[in-house]
Design goal:
Blueprint (H helix, E strand, L loop, with lengths): L4 E5 L3 H12 L3 E5 L11 E4 L2 E4 L5 E2 L6 H6 L10 E2 L3 E7 L2 E6 L2 H11 L4 H14 L15 H21 L4 H5 L5 H7 L12 H11 L3 E4 L2 H15 L3 E3 L4 E7 L2 E7 L4 E3 L2 E4 L3 H8 L7 H9 L5 E9 L9 E12 L2 E10 L12 E9 L2 H10 L1 H23 L6 E7 L1 H8 L30 E3 L10 H18 L11
Parallel strand pairs: 1-2, 1-14, 2-10, 7-16, 14-20
Antiparallel strand pairs: 3-4, 5-9, 6-9, 7-8, 11-12, 12-13, 15-18, 15-19, 16-17, 17-18
Helix pairs in contact: 1-9, 1-15, 3-4, 4-8, 12-13, 12-14
């Protein structure tokens, strides 16, 4: 069989993973990336010696007893990573009460009982469940699209405990579970473990907390930039090629067979197979504009919530923050109006644990404000750039004032201010609604992937975070792996994985 050529759209982690697995199996791949760097939405900003990472919170896979370690290790060389394990997932301050959400489940149990001793049964149920999840292997090894009947039986047999776990905890929201607490303070603060996401399934916070309990999800020093570098190194070491600043305009078909793509500059790239790792809505609305959107996909776009968009205020502070939590949820000194949304609190990440992000004695601080009104920022940027800049400055001023009140010595030590809005993510990554992590893991959606193929289109495949709610690094690597498996199956080729040389 001649070597087939594959065009991959997008050099995010999903595109690089799919390209790497296809190279391992004898395909020739070429990635076309819209921006000037790899990583997709998981990018970093560099300003005056500071690096700002608003994407990567943690990297699962460091615990070798779980299968996601083996799978992620096929793309990322863990030997080149320095992992920092957070002592706290987030610190919540509410009306004079502080809730430290420890990553050790036993310490977390003690902390919750300190605040709400009357809720022992509910606390035990939650902390026992997250420890249970932390030991599950995830069914990532084989694409469901190529299951044989025996595969289906084996899947049910091997994953029944996980299936039952999802049935129990993936169908109740954080808000609904919080109602079980008798203690009103705990009821309020439990919902802030994932701020503004209490509509998520309660399984959503159990996933990272379960992994972190077993030291399976620490922060890779260097963050998104380090992960992106290693993903691209792996891809290029296998013989893959990438072109940057090459936004794709359209996917080409002949008799319902994908035959290549055309870029916005008019360049055409012929191919035997096309894989889109671009934003799913952008893929269907523009790259496949003449194709009828699949019913299940159309329904999900119409009914399923996506992750909330964010306004990110990145600050370079010329001081250290010894003893402060790496992540906390804090109240703003005053409400910030942003179109139809009003922000009252902020999530603060203090990078006092990664000395690669700033000069000695200084600290990057990244603040994120959730907003449901992504269109406000997108429209303002397009129609009134001057007001757009003014509004960004106003948001930054309130954030800095709020941090000054909480930590002191912020205004006088602030050396860099950089503000990104939903319009930033939409402009750079074509993100639908500015949703930086795809579908929200809500009850009924979490753990329910979409198909990687489109009925009626041959030799076209989708990969990336929109396939598997709620995205994340393990999911996008696994989806890229499964796309390669589907392609190999169609070509009657055994799927193989190459090790590091």
């Amino acid at each position: 069989m001649r070597e087939k050529k594959v065009i991959v759209i997008g050099a995010g982690f999903g595109g690089l993973a799919a390209g790497s697995y296809l190279l391992m199996n004898g395909y020739k791949t070429h990635i076309l990336e819209k921006t000037n760097q790899s990583g997709g939405i998981a990018v970093t900003w560099k300003r005056k010696g500071y690096t700002f990472d608003g994407a990567t919170n943690y990297l699962p896979g460091s615990a070798t007893f779980l299968n996601i370690h083996a799978i992620i290790s096929e793309i990322l060389d863990f030997r080149k990573l320095s992992i920092y394990n957070y002592p706290e997932f987030i610190r919540i301050e509410n009306n004079g009460e502080t809730f430290r959400v420890y990553t050790d489940a036993d310490r977390l149990r003690e902390e919750m009982l300190r605040i709400a001793p009357e809720d022992k049964n509910t606390v035990d149920e939650f902390t026992t469940a997250l420890k249970q999840f932390g030991r599950f292997n995830l069914p990532f090894e084989k694409a469901p699209e190529i299951f044989t009947p025996w595969d289906g039986i084996s899947f049910l047999k091997n994953n029944l405990p996980l299936i039952l776990f999802r049935q129990k905890w993936g169908t109740i929201s954080i808000k609904k579970f919080a109602e079980r607490f008798k203690n009103s303070s705990m009821r309020t603060m439990f919902k802030q473990i994932f701020p503004h996401h209490d509509h998520f399934a309660v399984m959503a916070p159990m996933v990272p907390l379960g992994w972190m309990h077993y030291k399976n999800a620490g922060y890779p020093r260097g963050g998104s930039a380090t992960i992106g570098k290693l993903c691209e190194e792996r891809y290029r070491s296998l013989g893959g090629t990438v072109e940057y600043n090459k936004p794709v305009e359209k996917i080409l078909f002949k008799n319902s067979n994908a035959v290549g793509v055309v870029c916005e500059n008019g360049e055409r790239y012929d191919a035997d197979i096309v894989v889109s790792s671009a934003d799913m809505y952008h893929t269907f609305s523009k790259l496949l504009s003449e194709v009828q959107i699949p019913r299940r996909v159309e329904k999900r776009f119409r009914k399923a919530p996506a992750f909330s968009a964010i306004v990110q205020v990145s600050l370079g502070i010329g001081r250290l923050f010894d003893g402060e939590a790496e992540k906390s949820n804090l109240t703003l000194v005053k409400t910030i109006p942003m179109g139809n949304h009003h922000a009252d609190d902020m999530m603060v990440r203090i990078f006092n644990f990664d000395n690669t992000f700033s000069p000695p004695g200084k600290t990057p601080v990244v603040v994120q404000l959730r907003t449901e009104d992504y269109a406000y920022w997108d429209t303002l940027r397009k129609d009134d750039p001057e007001t757009y800049r003014e509004r960004k400055e106003q948001v930054a001023d309130v954030v800095i004032e709020s941090l000054e009140k909480r930590f002191g010595a912020i205004k006088s030590k602030c050396e860099v201010v950089d503000v990104a809005t939903p319009a930033t993510y939409i402009r750079y990554n074509n993100l639908w609604k500015g949703a930086h992590q795809g579908w929200a893991p809500t009850p009924g959606i979490i753990g329910r992937p979409l198909k990687k193929t489109v009925t009626g289109l041959n030799n076209f495949y989708q990969t990336g975070q929109w396939i598997s709610p709620a995205g994340g690094i393990p999911a996008v690597i696994a989806v890229g792996r499964q796309v390669a498996q589907i392609i190999c199956k169609k070509d009657n080729k055994p799927f193989t994985v190459a090790g590091y040389e």
